[in-house]
Write a structure and sequence with these properties.
The complex is a heterodimer of chains A (about 375) and B (about 425). Chain A is of the alpha/beta class and about 375 residues long. Chain A is about 55% helix and about 10% strand. Chain A starts with a helix and ends with a helix. Chain B has 17 helices and eight strands. Chain B has helices at about 10-30, 45-50, 60-70, 70-80, 90-100, 100-105, 125-140, 160-180, 185-210, 225-230, 235-255, 280, 310-325, 330-340, 355-360, 360-375, 390-410; strands at about 35-40, 55, 115-120, 145, 265-270, 290-295, 345-350, 375-380. In chain B, the strands form two sheets. Chain B has a four-stranded parallel β-sheet, with helices on both faces. A four-stranded parallel β-sheet of chain B has the order 6-5-7-8, sandwiched between helices. Classes of the chains: A alpha/beta (about 375), B alpha/beta (about 425).
């Protein structure tokens, strides 16, 4: 098992060099947020890669952005200013939160890439929104074609197939975790998901298939490993935090992270009508994907979170947010009250740099002391 | 001999009356059974409301009033006790604190009426949308309408964005007709949109007089914006702005400035500190006047063409994007143009903890000012609602040093 995990780790740790090498053959396009339709980018002949923040110092970024934006975006800008993304051909981003939109535009002012494109995503799910989604997809395709891409519906079907398969396998792994049939640590599972953001989908699919085969060979029910928790929150791009949680005696049994479940669930969309047009299927997936607070109400997200809690047997919730993350902070009070009504203990942690602070560890220990033991 | 300077516009008094009347009207509407709808500002729903004889209420506009009346600190306390982080926009924390505290308690001279309708618009920033999501929980009886408005840079607006915005306008009209039983009279809408357009034209005219040296009024008078936020599409707004225009024109022609000797002309970027607008005047004792600000051009969007709905849709698409990080390029262009037009010597960037969307991009604008126009600038850390994020000492040290530098640069020292 450790060997197959190693293959994923190699991508996480070595992606800058790998990307640079790949970019000599196939152009790479960066994105921040999982509302970016990577399938269209891929079907147009680019490799979509997600921008990760990771830990590290911030200096240059402060000359362009204030300190009160999420550490993820600050770090990403810092890395871009250091020239770490000069291999990208362009950036595509959906307007999800204000900071993602603003930072894409600040990148455009300061980081010279072939092109930038922001998609104004609809909030609604009615037929008008669906039609609008199609029109912004066409606009993106045109932009990609103007920068050397070549799009066709057949290529899109092909891309959908790959991504749907990838997402389906990840969903299976999560399902095993809910049932206590997955022997992987939270950190390892997280690393597996994370690698999917930086590896080309074809390569990633192979790695996943190999891993799933191994996992299927281990039909064991794992012993309880600690207090079962659901992690709900924004983006996490540093596996260390999860390791720290496990060391403290938590067993992460579910998450709705932007670098976790939210990025791949549900695996596919449906197209109305007989033809099953790939653009319709794509539209449908983005309209019905597991929602982010930047797009949906806390009230509508809560039942989905409760489903995860019930399905996974979580006994508590950790809200793990990037500091200054407005969409999540705005939903927190309503969610927290709703969990209170269900008698489910929860705790809020804001990630300021990377990993947990001493004070956060102490709070978690107290949380476990009260709710988790016995 | 020069006529003596008068800092305040006469129209300021009329403005106070107007503010009172608006909020009284809101309360009366509720009492009279006229449907009350809460909505975010800067979109075309306001004209539709006035055309359909419905009462619009703007929670975001209520916040500056709370700041001025001193309610804000209490509102913040309540919101924070409910779990709303201090890192969230002050408008959000203020209104949420208000609806859960003072509004329930009553007893304030001005108050907001409960909403019959809540309109959330996807077209602005995340806090503006989240405010309404949270309000929906506080007012479960209210009917909800969620409109979509593409968040697209001003310079990238295309037909399909406009088409979608237009179809959302029709959906809104449909919703309002069904829930309130009122019908939209198309001719009346044309009239309202015509009035709205007149207000925009007057706004631009008023702003143009600020090019005069000395400037006839300063950013401390930006309260006149109230009519653009709450009264666009009414005769009242047009009358008031005509009065302001005439007064400003007379002052400009008679060379009546804000201060005796205007030496330095400044531009203020980002929302002003509503709890202390006096800060904008503090430059005056150093012979500086803030003659233009972010909002100067944000309210000049025209509502022209044969189709009033399309005009409203276009306005709605541009409003947020022009003042925020959605259009950093366009905003930069606008600030640079304003600095040329208003003969600006220096720019004050308010790095506003309560508003990431307007703060993002400031540094790019700052650099362009220096590189393209040689205009220096200073950054002030602050917050447009929450005084706790503002340091008077920092403000004073930075602005004083900045003013000295500007004067030195102009050979005045
Ligand atoms: S949603 Fe939150 S974590 Fe993601 S970019 Fe926006 S502020 Fe940052
Ligand atoms: S634009 Fe800025 S001030 Fe207005 S609601 Fe959004 S974040 Fe708050």
């Amino acid at each position: 098992m450790t060997e197959s995990i190693q293959a994923f780790m190699e991508w996480i740790e070595g992606y800058p060099e790998k990307h640079r090498a790949l970019s000599l053959q196939t152009p790479l396009v960066g994105y921040f947020c999982t509302y970016t339709p990577v399938e269209l980018i891929h079907a147009s002949g680019f490799i979509p890669v997600r921008i990760l923040g990771e830990s590290g110092p911030i200096q240059k970024a402060y000359t362009l952005a204030p300190s009160f934006i999420c550490p993820y975006m600050r770090r990403a800008l810092e890395k871009a200013l250091e020239g770490r993304y000069d291999y990208l051909s362009g950036m595509v981003q959906g307007y999800t939160c204000d900071v993602a939109c603003g930072l894409t535009n600040i990148w455009e002012e300061n980081i010279r890439l072939g092109f930038y494109h922001t998609l104004p995503l609809p909030y609604n799910r009615n037929p008008e929104a669906r039609a609008f989604f199609r029109s912004i997809f066409s606009e993106l395709i045109q932009k990609l074609e103007a920068h050397g891409g070549r799009f066709s519906l057949e290529a899109l079907s092909q891309s959908l197939k790959i991504y749907e398969r990838v997402r389906g396998l990840l969903a299976d792994l999560y399902e095993r975790r809910y049932q206590g049939r997955l022997m992987l640590s939270a950190k390892d599972l997280f690393s597996i998901v994370l690698a999917g953001f930086v590896a080309p989908p074809e390569t990633y699919l192979q790695l996943l298939e190999a891993l799933v085969k191994e996992v299927q060979g281990q039909e064991v029910i794992k012993a309880a490993r600690g207090f079962p928790i659901l992690i709900s929150g924004s983006l996490l791009d540093d596996p260390k935090t999860l390791e720290a949680l496990e060391d403290l005696g938590m067993d992460v049994v579910a998450d709705d992270l932007c670098t976790g479940l939210r990025s791949f669930y549900p695996p596919a969309g449906e197209g109305p009508g007989e033809k099953n047009d790939p653009l319709d299927r794509l539209t449908d997936r983005y309209l019905h994907r597991f929602p982010c607070p930047a797009r949906q109400r806390a009230r509508d997200r809560f039942p989905l979170l409760m489903d995860l809690v019930r399905h996974s047997g979580a006994g508590g919730v950790i809200f793990l947010l990037q500091k200054f993350c407005t969409p999540h902070l705005a939903d927190y009070p309503i969610l927290s009250e709703a969990f209170n009504k269900e008698g489910l203990p929860h705790i809020l942690l804001e990630i300021e740099d990377s990993g947990l602070t001493e004070a956060q560890r102490t709070r978690l220990e107290a949380f476990l002391e009260i709710h988790g033991r016995g | 001999m020069r006529p003596p300077s008068q800092k305040r516009l006469q129209a300021a008094k009329a403005l106070n009356q107007l503010v009172l009347r608006f909020y009284q009207e809101c309360l009366e509407a509720r009492a009279k059974g006229k449907p009350v709808g809460w909505m975010p500002p800067m979109n075309g729903a306001i004209e539709i409301f006035y055309a359909m004889d419905l009462q619009p209420v703007f929670p975001e506009n209520w916040s500056p009033l709370c700041a001025a009346f001193g309610y804000a600190p209490q509102n913040f306390r309540i919101a924070e006790a409910l779990g709303y982080s201090r890192d969230l926009c002050g408008y959000l924390r203020n209104i949420i604190g208000y609806v859960h505290g003072l509004m329930k308690e009553g007893g304030t001279p001005l108050a907001l009426p409960e909403p019959d309708l809540l309109l959330s618009f996807g077209g602005g920033c995340v806090p503006a949308m989240k405010i309404f999501h949270i309000l929906e929980d506080r007012f479960p009886e209210a009917r909800i309408f969620s409109a979509d408005l593409p968040q697209v840079a001003a310079e990238q607006v295309q037909d399909h964005h406009v088409r979608y915005a237009v179809s959302e306008m029709y959906r809104l009209i449909d919703f309002l007709t069904k829930t309130t039983g009122k019908k939209l009279d198309y001719d009346r809408l044309k009239e309202v949109v015509g009035l709205s357009n007149q207000a925009s034209i007057l706004w631009e005219e008023i702003m143009a007089y600020r090019r005069y040296i000395p400037s006839p009024f300063s950013a401390a008078e930006i309260g006149i914006m109230f009519v653009m936020v709450t009264r666009q599409g009414t005769r009242e707004a047009v009358d008031f702005l005509t009065q302001v225009r005439d007064e400003v024109a007379a002052r400009a022609e008679n060379k009546i400035g804000v201060i005796e000797e205007e030496q330095v002309r400044l531009f203020w970027d980002n929302i002003p500190p509503w709890y202390n607008l006096g800060l904008l005047k503090s430059f005056e004792k150093m012979n500086g006047v803030v003659v233009a600000e972010t909002y100067s051009s944000a309210w000049s969007i025209r509502l022209e063409g044969d189709d009033p709905i399309e005009a409203l849709a276009r306005k709605s698409l541009l409003s947020y994007s022009l003042v925020s990080c959605v259009s950093i390029k366009k905003r930069k262009e606008m600030v640079l143009k304003a600095c040329r037009d208003y003969v600006i010597d220096g720019v004050v960037f308010h790095r506003n903890k309560s508003c990431a969307p307007i703060t993002l991009g400031q540094m790019d604008i700052k650099r362009a000012l220096e590189e393209e126009l040689g205009i220096p600038s200073v950054i002030i850390d602050g917050d447009h609602m929450d005084e706790r994020n503002f340091s008077l000492a920092q403000f004073q040290t930075r602005t004083e040093a900045f003013m000295e530098m500007l004067k030195h640069k102009k050979g005045l020292w």
